[in-house]
Write a structure and sequence with these properties.
Elements lengths: L1 E10 L5 E9 L5 H14 L12 E8 L2 H10 L2 E6 L3
Antiparallel strand pairs: 1-2, 1-3, 2-4
Length: about 90
């Protein structure tokens, strides 16, 4: 499966910037869907008022997904790769 990778930087409630990638099926091109997936992820991290726009989240590239990402997408519609400050 090919996935689109959306590079995302969002400020946490303590003003530290989180960096993570949102991965979706490459057929998903509607930014609002990707942003909503990002907001759902941020809520699991306790971010109280997440803001995700084209300023924070941008399409980066398409790649072939490993099985773990395919499994996440099958369950939730998206997968997250945590890069920085996502604890």
């Amino acid at each position: 499966m090919n996935v689109s990778v959306w590079d995302t930087y969002v400020k946490r409630d303590d003003s530290i910037t989180m960096h993570f990638d949102i991965l979706v099926q490459s057929s998903v091109t509607d930014e609002s869907i990707v942003f909503n997936f990002g907001k759902a992820y941020l809520k699991t991290k306790g971010i109280t008022n997440p803001i995700i726009t084209t300023k924070e989240c941008r399409f980066c590239h398409i790649e072939t997904a490993p099985k773990s990402v395919i499994d996440d997408i099958a369950k939730k519609g998206y997968s997250i790769i945590e890069m920085e400050n996502c604890y």
